[in-house]
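Hi everyone, sorry if this is the wrong subforum. Our group has a chain we'd like a structural model of before ordering constructs, and none of us has done structure prediction before. Sequence below.
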Amino acid sequence: MRNFQILVYIPLILLAGCDNYNPTNLFKNPSFEKISKRNQATSWYSGQHAGRKAYKMAVDSSISFEGKNSFKIEQFTDQVYGVVEQPVILPKRINKRFVFSAMLKTKDVKPGDGWRLIINCRAKDGFIIKQYQSTPLTATTDWQKVTIEEDIPPETVKIDAGAILQSLGSAWIDQASFIIDPLTDK
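Answer:
Right subforum, don't worry. Here is the predicted structure as tokens:
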């Protein structure tokens, strides 16, 4: 019986060591716990389309999915969009797919384009090659995990990943994760 156990465990150990690639979250400060003196999340950029101020954007320590903080964005007047995003530096070991997920929550987000995840794949010249978006959340929703899993265009040199609000209301993001999918690396 002991010899049989050894014969079973040896192949399992060998298989476990075949690929030492460990998918790593490429976001810095994915849970918005590190904040600047201006109450902004370090490593994240927040902004709005040109025009008069239409958004309040800041770390929120009163609501979070996990940990102490989340990031809140509130649109209080008409505007094209408000966004919180982070540039993702692609590893040298570039695979064909990415998985971007985050916990999202909304309060009184009006119907329309709503609150959703967004990915911009950029070429060397900075232009967007491909844009991916999740299905928008509207109305009032509790925390839910939203995920985008897609191909990375081969000419992509940089990715901007985050969340965009395009409707009146309040929205939160927490526990963001961006990984390069190891299953597609052949």
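For your construct planning: Confidence is low (pLDDT under 50) at residues 6-19. The beta strands are 45-48, 55-60, 70-75, 82-88, 97-109, 115-122, 128-133, 139-151, 158-165, 169-180.
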